[in-house]
């Protein structure tokens, strides 16, 4: 008995090892083109549409068979690459995206409009954001040109995926496409894509609030600003004004220049800088601008501090009629008093407003009362000129000297013999030598020492200027050679001296400069020396008759040479000593007195040459000293001299 059984075929399972997709991109003549795949996953042969490219080309060129022979085959069309066919062909879509603003209290989100560009030549895309003025956001190229990924599988956006009224996500940002340009619409419709209706572009609400209102055009007035500019260009009114701020602490009265520009009715205030005024060199106080004169009444809630003044807040502006000479004008809170103007301004006001009164106002402050400088009384220290310099400057300067006078009268000294006027009999016997220095107009007094007198001689008064009685600090008067006459009284700091005698050099000096001295002074000295000159001439005749003059001159010259060889320097007081020995003023002394004087001054009188001179006469003149032929007298040195 046979049993019915189901026989199933045994299926052999062959595992697949290749899962890659076959290549669909080929190259021909150096250009890439797409082709159909020939194998599937696992290297299985695909039997659908497995015609070769040559067979497809043959079928496309196949023509129906004609009765009278085969038709001619059409030549194949030329291959055009994509970058040539779609060069400079770009699809443009208008889109926007929404961006959150978490840090602002005025806006919670922001709408940003962009343009999406699709380049057909290589299927790349870019996103551009138009630049909005004063947006504060970096704008321009939002996403650079590239192929945008479509999903996680590696697909990219194609132009078939783009349409109006859809959302696309690019790098995590969602863009809403609302419209496209006409070229994009025509291209998509030609490819069989049905476009959605366009949508309205959404604008940012915050940017709409920031937009200024549209300009409202009003009917222009009859006043032509261009005509005003052309007529009054470079024509400026100039006023001179002052700003008195002395009521405030550290305030002062300052001068300014107010310029009014007729071309645009603007005002400028410039500061006048004075020398050493201590201010920075900034000339502009108020820059050129229109200045408000009256404001609109503000509400109580209106802030008191604003940045700028608009035309809606001003009722009236300053014009040329608001400025006048002699009146005050308040400009931005400062009160300026106009005291003068220039010639052009005066002529403009005459022609425009008929004003002819332009009297400038004197704004100069009254001169301060001069404080007379009170010179304090002289304290007796130093010279009056030196002490007076302490009253003129903090650092006293030495008084100026007459150097020409000092050079011309160097070593010129006038000597007088004086005695002290005193109720004390002992002081009346004292004799002094008063020396007047012509180079500095100073006086010194020397008292010759007398042995066993009980009075120490020497310098009684150093070189100084001696004021005359009645001299004041404002009008100082000092003793001059014209005041020193025989018998005159000289008051020296409370002590009175009477001039009894003088050196004959004084008479010779006054006679040689007679035009510089009064006649009574010269006559006084001439009367005093008249008998002395007559006696001296007689003594000279006697001495000369008793001397062998040629031999005396030879010996005298030898004596001079001998003194120079031994470097002898005569003492400064030698003249006074010889002056005392010659009581008669004849210019000669005896041998005994001459020898005593030589011992006193250490003159080498033991030399045989001196003995030879002594044997010449009983009375010896001072002939062995140097002789000044211009003045015809012999002298000991340049300062001490004696006549013969």
From TrEMBL:
Highest taxon, organism lineage: Eukaryota
DM10 domain: residues covered: 87-192, 233-353, 410-514
Pfam families: DM10_dom (PF06565)
Main location: cytoplasm
Residue ranges of every copy of the EF-hand domain listed in the record: 569-604
Biological process, per Gene Ontology: cerebral cortex cell migration; cilium-dependent cell motility; mitotic cytokinesis; mitotic spindle organization; regulation of cell division
Any GO CC annotation of this UniProt entry: axonemal microtubule
Keyword Zinc-finger included in the entry's annotation: no
Gene3D superfamilies in alphabetical order: 2.30.29.170
Subcellular localization(s) per the UniProt record: Cytoplasm, Cytoskeleton, Cilium axoneme
Molecular function, one GO term: alpha-tubulin binding
SMART domains the record matches: DM10
Keywords: Cell projection, Cytoplasm, Cytoskeleton, Repeat
Record protein name field: EF-hand domain containing 1
Species this chain originates from: Sphenodon punctatus (Tuatara)
Lineage: Eukaryota, Metazoa, Chordata, Craniata, Vertebrata
Gene transcribed to yield this protein: EFHC1
């Amino acid at each position: 008995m046979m049993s019915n059984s189901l026989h199933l075929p045994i299926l052999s399972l062959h595992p697949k090892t290749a899962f890659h997709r076959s290549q669909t991109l080929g190259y021909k003549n150096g250009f890439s083109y797409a082709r159909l795949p020939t194998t599937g996953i696992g290297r299985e042969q695909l039997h659908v549409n497995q015609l070769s490219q040559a067979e497809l080309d043959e079928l496309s060129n196949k023509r129906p068979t004609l009765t009278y022979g085969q038709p001619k085959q059409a030549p194949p069309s030329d291959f055009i690459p994509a970058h040539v066919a779609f060069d400079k062909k770009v699809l443009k879509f208008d889109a926007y995206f929404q961006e959150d603003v978490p840090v602002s209290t005025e806006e919670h989100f922001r709408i940003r409009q962009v343009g999406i560009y699709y380049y057909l030549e290589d299927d790349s895309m870019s996103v551009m954001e138009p630049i909005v003025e004063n947006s504060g956001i970096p704008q321009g190229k939002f996403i650079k040109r590239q192929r945008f990924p479509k999903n996680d599988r590696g697909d990219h956006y194609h132009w078939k995926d783009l349409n109006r009224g859809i959302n696309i996500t690019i790098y995590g940002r969602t863009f809403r496409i609302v419209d496209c340009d006409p070229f994009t619409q025509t291209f998509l419709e030609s490819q069989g894509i049905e476009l959605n209706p366009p949508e309205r572009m959404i604008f940012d609400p915050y940017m709409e609030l920031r937009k200024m209102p549209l300009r409202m055009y009003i009917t222009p007035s009859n006043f032509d600003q261009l005509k005003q500019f052309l007529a009054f260009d470079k024509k400026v009114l100039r006023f001179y004004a002052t700003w008195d701020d002395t009521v405030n602490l550290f305030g002062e009265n300052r001068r300014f220049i107010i310029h009014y520009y007729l071309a645009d009715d603007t005002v400028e205030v410039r500061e006048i800088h004075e020398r050493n005024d201590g201010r920075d060199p900034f000339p502009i106080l108020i820059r050129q601008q229109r200045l408000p004169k009256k404001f609109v009444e503000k509400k109580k809630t209106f802030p008191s501090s604003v940045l700028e003044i608009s035309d809606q807040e001003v009722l009236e502006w300053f014009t040329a009629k608001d400025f006048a000479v002699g009146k005050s004008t308040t400009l931005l809170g400062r009160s300026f008093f106009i005291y003068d103007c220039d010639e052009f301004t005066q002529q403009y006001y005459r022609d425009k407003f008929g004003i002819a009164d332009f009297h400038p106002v004197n704004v100069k402050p009254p001169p301060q009362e001069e404080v007379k400088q009170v010179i304090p009384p002289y304290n007796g220290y130093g010279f009056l000129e030196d002490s007076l310099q302490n009253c003129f400057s903090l650092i006293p300067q030495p008084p100026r000297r007459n150097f020409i006078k000092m050079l011309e009268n160097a070593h010129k000294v006038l000597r007088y013999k004086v005695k002290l006027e005193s109720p004390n009999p002992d002081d009346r016997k004292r004799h002094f030598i008063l020396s007047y220095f012509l180079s500095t107009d100073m006086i010194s007094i020397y008292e010759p020492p007398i042995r066993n007198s009980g009075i120490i001689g020497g310098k009684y008064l150093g070189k100084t200027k001696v004021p005359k009685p009645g001299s004041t600090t404002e009008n100082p008067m000092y003793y001059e050679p014209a005041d020193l006459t025989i018998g005159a009284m000289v008051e020296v700091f409370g002590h009175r001296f009477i001039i009894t005698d003088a050196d004959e050099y004084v008479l010779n000096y006054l006679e040689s400069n007679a035009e510089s001295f009064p006649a009574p002074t010269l006559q006084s000295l001439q009367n005093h020396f008249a008998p002395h000159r007559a006696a001296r001439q007689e003594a000279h005749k006697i001495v000369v008759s008793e001397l062998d003059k040629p031999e005396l001159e030879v010996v005298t010259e030898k004596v001079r040479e001998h003194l120079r060889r031994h470097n002898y320097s005569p003492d400064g007081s030698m003249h006074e000593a010889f002056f005392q020995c010659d009581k008669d003023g004849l210019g000669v002394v005896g041998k005994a007195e001459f020898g005593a004087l030589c011992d006193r001054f250490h003159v080498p009188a033991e030399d045989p040459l001196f003995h030879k001179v002594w044997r010449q006469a009983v009375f010896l003149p001072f002939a062995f000293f140097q002789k000044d032929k211009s003045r015809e007298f012999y002298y000991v040195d340049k300062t001490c001299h004696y006549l013969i």
